[in-house]
Amino acid sequence: MADPERTQSKTAIWNDPTFRSIAFQVIAAVLIVGSIWYLFDNTMTNMERRGITTGFGFLGETSGFGILMSLIEYDETHTYGRTFLVGLLNTLLVSFLGIIAATILGFILGVARLSHNWLIAKIATVYVEVLRNLPLLLQIFFWYIAVLQTLPHPRQSFNFADSFFLNARGFYVPGPVPESGFGIVMLLFFAAIVATVFLARWAHKRQDQTGQQFPVFWSGVGLIIVVPLVVFYLLGAPMSFDYPALRGFNFQGGITIIPELIALWLALTMYTAAFIGEIVRAGIQGVSHGQTEAAHALGLRHGPTLRLVIIPQAMRIIIPPLTSQYLNLAKNSSLATAIGYPDLVGVFMGTTLNQTGQAVEIVAMTMAVYLTMSLSISAFMNWFNKRMALVER
Amino acid sequence: MKQTITVLGAVAAAMIATSASAGTLEDVQKRGSLSCGVSTGLPGFSLQDEKGNWTGLDVDTCRAVAAAVLGDANKVRFVPLTAKERFTALQSGEIDMLSRNTTWTHTRDTSLGLNFAGVNYYDGQGFLVQKALGVKSALELDGASVCIQAGTTTELNLADYFREHGMKYSAVVFDTSDQTREGFEAARCDILTSDQSQLYAIRSKLGNPDSAMVLPEVISKEPLGPVVRQGDDAWFNIVKWTLMAQINAEEMGVTSANADQMAAGTNPGVKRLLGTEGDAGAKLGLSADWALNAVKQVGNYAEMFDRNVGPNTPLAISRGLNAQWNKGGILYAPPVR
Ligand SMILES: N[C@@H](CCC(=O)N[C@@H](CS)C(=O)NCC(=O)O)C(=O)O
């Protein structure tokens, strides 16, 4: 009787499928990395020879130019490395805001398209057909030039209750200024979130074991919103507001939301929502009607049917294409340069590249950022998809 | 997008080419035309009319080189570039020379692999403000919003100036000169800043030019001139000396009208310049009538200046710094000898 181990070891190692597949992958990886390195090295050498400065030393040099909007402290005395961060954060901000808003609007549109109300369904259809067929760049220009640039001069701003102002330079809102004691409220708030998560787990387990339900949603609302709010007032509302006011040329104080951000955010949201709407509609329609009937036959009411039967199955259809919409949105945010929103492409691949002339390094860094961003969104959505998929079986 | 493509072009070119840059002269001669980078539209410097004809001081600088090299001032292909695109376009070899109101600075000269071949206009940065604001001096601009064009020296000078005077500003940055102007008109900003020569041009394009005024302050030195790739000295010399020939021609009284006559005349300096004596052309690898062609077809510096930006044009700029050294200006061309 031949020992299976021995039979295997008799085959020559290069005929072993496992060895072969590993070996080929290693060779391929070495070749790819090698050629990339070769191209990079060659490029650098050529550029040096032509008198073009290379290397990443510029990241430590003073930038010397101002940026319209920054989430971190920045002025012209900071470095080019900092301009990279400023641009990156601005890109992340608009992508994040866009993804949230487009998802909400997209789900509303998707459901509206399936509405039995003729008018609602038609409005949603027209929206989807128009918005997804107009080039995004055009929509960005529309919001920026046709809508926002027609707003009045700061001295004739629209004034809402002397605290909110709208003009051609942006939307000015009061900025919250936390005072002593506010930390406690924030602490309670985060503690409540953690507590709610544990509560939900416990309730789930108990329901599995005993069949008894627990009103997790409402107790969560109580914990997260009501408790901190009550404490906030008990402490004497430790929060004041910094109101914007016209001083000199512009409004100062409070928070300024620049028109470039508004235009880009609106355009990205409305454009992507049209696609998400279609994905949601397809997802819901993809769950056969028999599922609804079966759920009803089991005695589930309309709400739980939707929540426990239809949506979990629809999500499995929705998530993969939804992921690519998120990726598109993040990448489309680079159209920001067209209207001067200071995103990564504008600030870093634009001004910084131009002032330093270090094209290869800067383009490489920018590409790496978009790649990382896209891969992270993908990874997150894959993880989410797996969770959703498990729910059903 | 176009910017990205240009950048990628430059990167790709740098990766592949090992011995490109040498031989621009041969390339131009073989192609039979000069490829010259200009602005996307700036009255007086480089502007395309409805019929597709280019005019301007920077445009004429390109034409003079084409006349010197190819004997025909019309053999130029103009490539419009934004401020952000211009250097990569030159580095990647998309254009043979850049003549796009580009300021000669230390960084640009030393780290971009480029060389400045001279100065065809001495400029300085200024401010355009809405008259309604009642501002009389740039020192009253604390807290203002400023419209500027991306990728310019303007962006840097502005930051320096406000920092030096302890003032705050917010910079609204656009890609093209038209967008910058529209932002200014839509009250996105209080002031627009750029090279002063360009402010008058921009002002003339406003819906109501009288609503805005140029402030007296000039906050920087902006020597504008043609640029070529580093490492091709023969080509560098040609571009440099064509401009010098035009400046010398003005100084010696040679114009497009009298050039032939002067070439046949008796002044040895003029004869050397116009190729009827000596071998100035051959030393550049060009024919003897290189400068004659440039002056005859495009004119001397004064003709070029008057035609495009001078007192009888909408820009109505006086010679100022751009007058000859012996007429109160700083234009001073080395001698042809
Ligand atoms: N001389 C400066 C500024 C040049 C510049 O780009 N100026 C703008 C004036 S707003 C321009 O020419 N725009 C025309 C265009 O975008 O084509 C530099 O070299 O950086």
Name its key features:
heterodimer; A: alpha+beta; four-stranded antiparallel β-sheet; 7% strand; B: 337 residues; D-Maltodextrin-Binding Protein, domain 2; 2 domains; five-stranded mixed β-sheet; three-stranded parallel β-sheet; 16% strand; globular; binds glutathione
Cα radius of gyration of chain A in angstroms: 28 Å
Order of helices and strands of chain A: HHHHHEEEEHHEEEEHHHHH
Beta-strand level of the residues of chain A, as a percent range?
5-15%
The oligomeric state of the chains shown is heterodimer
CATH superfamily of the largest domain in chain B: Periplasmic binding protein-like II
What is the helix fraction of residues of chain A, given as a range? Answer: 55-70%
Number of domains of chain B: 2
Helix content of chain B: 25-40%
Q: SSE order of chain B in H/E notation? A: HHEEEHEHEHEEEEHEHEHEEEHHHHHH
Task: Classify the beta-strand content of chain B into a percent band.
Answer: 15-25%
Q: First CA to last CA of chain B: what distance?
A: 48 Å
Specify which chain pair forms the largest interface: A-B, 49 and 56 residues
Bound molecules: glutathione
The count of DSSP E runs of length 2 or more, i.e. the number of strands of chain B, is 14
Strand order of the largest sheet of chain B: 10-9-11-8-12
Q: Any idea of the CATH topology of the largest domain in chain B?
A: D-Maltodextrin-Binding Protein, domain 2
Can you walk through the features of this model?
The complex is a heterodimer of chains A (393) and B (337). In chain A, strands 1-2-3-8 form a four-stranded antiparallel sheet. In chain A, 67% of the residues lie in helices and 7% in strands. Chain A has 393 residues and is an alpha+beta fold. Chain B is 39% helix and 16% strand. Chain B has 14 helices and 14 strands. Chain B has a five-stranded mixed sheet with strand order 10-9-11-8-12, with helices on both faces. In chain B, strand 2 and strand 3 (54-55) form a beta hairpin. Chains A and B meet through helix 2, helix 11 and helix 12 of A and helix 1, helix 4, helix 5, helix 6 and strand 10 of B. Glutathione binds next to helix 6, helix 7, strand 11 and strand 13 of chain B.
